[in-house]
Amino acid sequence: MSNSDQSSYDSEEIIQEENNPELIKTKEIVESDSDDDDDIPISQRRSKLNSSTSSISDITLTNDKGLSNISDSNSSDSDSDQPLSQRISASNSSQNILPKKRKIKTESNTTITNDNESSDSEDDIALSKRRKVAPLKKVKKEEKEIKKEIKEEDVKKPVKRTRTKKEEDEKPTTKRKKAQTKVKEEKVSKKKKKKEEEEVEVFRWWDNEKEDDSIKWTTLEHQGPYFPPEYVSHGIKMKYKGVPIDLDPECEEVANFYAQVIGTDWGENPTFRKNFFKDFQKVLKKKMPGCPIKKFEDCDFTPLTEYFAELKEKKKAMTKEEKEVIKKEKQEIEDKYGWALLDGRKEKVGNFRIEPPGLFRGRGEHPKTGTLKHRVYPESVTINIGENATIPPPPEGHKWGKIIHDNTVMWLAMWKENVNDSFKYVWLAAGSSLKGQSDYKKFEKARELKKHIDRIRAEYTAELKDKLMATRQRATALYFIDKLALRAGNEKGDDVADTVGCCSLRYEHVTLEPPNRVIFDFLGKDSIRYYNEVEVSKQVYKNIEIFKRPPKKEGDMLFDRLNTTILNRHLQKSMKGLTAKVFRTYNASYTFQEELKKTVKNSTINEKLLAYNRANRQVAILCNHQRAVSKNHNDQLKRIKDKILTSKYQRYLVSNEILEIDPSLKKKKPEYGRLSRGITKEFIKNYEEKELEKKKAKLERDNEKRKKEGKELLTLEDVEKKKHQPSLERLQKQYDVLSKRIKAQQLLLIDKDENKTTALGTSKINYIDPRISAAWCYKYNVPIEKIFNKSLRNKFKWAVEVDENFVF
User: Fold this and answer.
1) Alpha helices in 202-347 (DSSP H)
2) Is 767 an active-site residue?
3) For bias kind Polar residues, which ranges apply (predicted)?
């Protein structure tokens, strides 16, 4: 609507008000204005208002009916979608068309049109005077009211518009995202529900400790062990003297075992080869009496090795669907054999699978490495189950060797293996209630020793000078067990690995160096070498000299009047349930607790973890938990060093950007803009090449998305142009983050190098009371997940509930 029309219509309203007093008694507004002139400056509106007074005489007043018709004829919304400026120009070109007006009902039911309501205070003022009083404030007020009305109408009646092609393409994507989000939420919900169920099912046995633990269970149900599938021949033939040999399936299976270790250290081990071929010939003689295979050197296992290499590659190339099938089959086995009912509670079974046949590896220089492990059949297995429970069915065509109902033991099944004539067991899982109770009692026994240790030490120190040789040997052995955490050791046969402990030390295992140094050098458990040079008391040194006097020679026992049975029987007199093994657990836990006191309270998480690992390492060294340096150890260190250099160079680049923004910071921070040692031109070149490759890869991914969306593809130059210069605050924050990262990587490098020959896991799991670790975490605000993984947290459920004040 034009300004002239607006002013004309205002004038008409004034005349109507003067001639019709009923307007003052307005009761209801039926319709609001949809048009306004907000886009016109106030100055123009005022000038137009004054200039439009001449048109008042031209307006012919009509009766009520006529006014109604005019209002109806102009109530169309045909131009509602047009911009405001277009509507104004249109109204200027047609001065005779009145704009859409408000309809007001009076008490006499007469409908009139109106643009702006007059205030009651102005009803008695003359038209000429009212025309002169056109205050700026009122115009501004009108503008505000008009704007307000438009906003309210826009909210009530949102404008419908047609979607663009891009929006239509994105619409299904949004739906997919919503669907994916819904699936994720469902998965999270299921996991949360499963977690809650697991928490509900936890048997809190530690809240109700039993004094008598001789009865392990009242009822026990399980499915027995799972047997590996029978061997199926593949038909690939090994060669002997260049000629392919047809082997019986059982002989072929044994040949397969060796073919799979070719190219490894085992395949090159002479002892391994010798033991394998000896057992291979036994199987050949039994199944193929006339077989020509006589010498190992003439055997060619290459066709078999190549066949298994192909299988390995096929396994790597398996599709997701094929992997899912295998995963489902494994899960079905797990669901069937992996659970037991103990006193009505569902408990997880640990190693329910019977070991498949193969070649024995052994640790260290084991004399039986390469020996054939026979296939285990149900006839060799003893099942332990509840008396009223259903006996699990053995594989078809077989029967169980024996079925017992012994509730004083924790194992579910047992059999004897042929290599070392040792017994193998199926136990409940590490996190089960029975295993947890066993661990708890073990560490409580070690804590109890703390009350007696001073008295026991005083006793064996006095007995070091005893006149009776047997007593003096026992005291000396106990000194080594206590101070050096040596295992007690048992005598072994000639066909078993030559590993020894304290009580089974021989003449050659101990060497003396005046004045008081003793050197130990022997194979410990798992054929791990124990080498230690220690300084001992003068009396202990003197005793070892006596124990090595002639006629003793190499091969003779050092403690010839002592064994573990005699030693443990004596220890029972000092404390109920005390054995030589308890000393090892006590010393490991006590040493660990003392070493942890070196932790700095206000240090970073990584520094605290380094202190924890160093304490753990001291225990591992004490207990001789060693390992060989891994083949890729140097590669691992190099990768960490490269990460450190990369972070340092990135920090250097960030510092340069900071100095570009504020060069004055160079005085406060002289390290800004300085290259770290080790960053060479070659390193920078390699870094830039890698970064360029990353950018290209990212750009390729982004362009693929843009192509699908119908957008223009970008180049590296376009991406660089779009980059915004980060703020100084953001750059300084980035600099600090990189500095922290460098420090963490440097600590990791130290930790990795220090632990290269030490196995921390064994001592942490088996010898250190887990409550010490939990209390340390709470005291120094270290997340327990950094110390115990999920399986260990499950194993030590009973331990993680202690507070920070726990003391071993």
Assistant:
1) 249-259, 265-268, 270-287, 302-316, 320-337
2) yes
3) 82-97
Give 135-166 pLDDT, tens digit per residue. 444 445 555 555 555 444 444 444 444 555 44
The whole-chain average pLDDT of the chain stands at 79
Residues 442 and 579 in one domain: yes
Domain boundary among 317, 335, 363: 317
Q: Which of 23-27, 81-85, 477-481 has the highest mean pLDDT?
A: 477-481
Give tens-digit pLDDT for 584-621.
999 999 999 999 999 998 899 999 999 999 999 999 99
Based on the domain organization, do 333 and 262 belong to the same domain?
no
Note whether 480 and 571 are same-domain residues: yes
Say yes or no: 447 and 573 in one domain: yes
The one catalytic residue among 479, 652, 767, 780: 767
Three-class SS state of 299? strand
Report residue 236 as tokens: 């690939």
Question: Tens digits of per-residue pLDDT, 703-726?
Answer: 898 888 888 888 888 888 877 888
Average pLDDT over residues 434-460: 93
If asked whether residues 271 and 342 sit together in one domain, one would say no
Q: How far apart are CA 403 and CA 381, in angstroms?
A: 9
Q: Does 234 fall in a domain?
A: no
Q: Which of these ranges, 83-97, 461-475, 514-528, 791-805, has the smallest mean pLDDT? A: 83-97
Contact of 413 with 382, CB cutoff 8 Å: yes
CA dist., res. 696 & res. 156, Å (int): 50
CATH code at position 254: 1.10.10.41
DSSP line for 359-405 = E---SSS-TTTTPEEPPP-GGGPEEE--TTSPPPPPSTT---SEEE-
Q: Nearest-5° angle of CA 392, CA 394, CA 397?
A: 150
Strands 102-105 vs 111-114: parallel, antiparallel or unpaired:
antiparallel
Q: Which domain holds residue 244?
A: 239-317
407 and 481 assigned to the same domain = no
Chain centroid offset of residue 726 CA: 32
- Side by side, the strands of the sheet bearing 382-384 are 402-404, 382-384, 413-416, 423-426
The answer, as to whether pTM is greater than 0.85, is no
Domain count for the chain: 4
Q: What percent of the chain has pLDDT over 90?
A: 54
Please tell me whether residues 352 and 410 are part of one structural domain: yes
CB atoms within 10 A of CB 721: 9
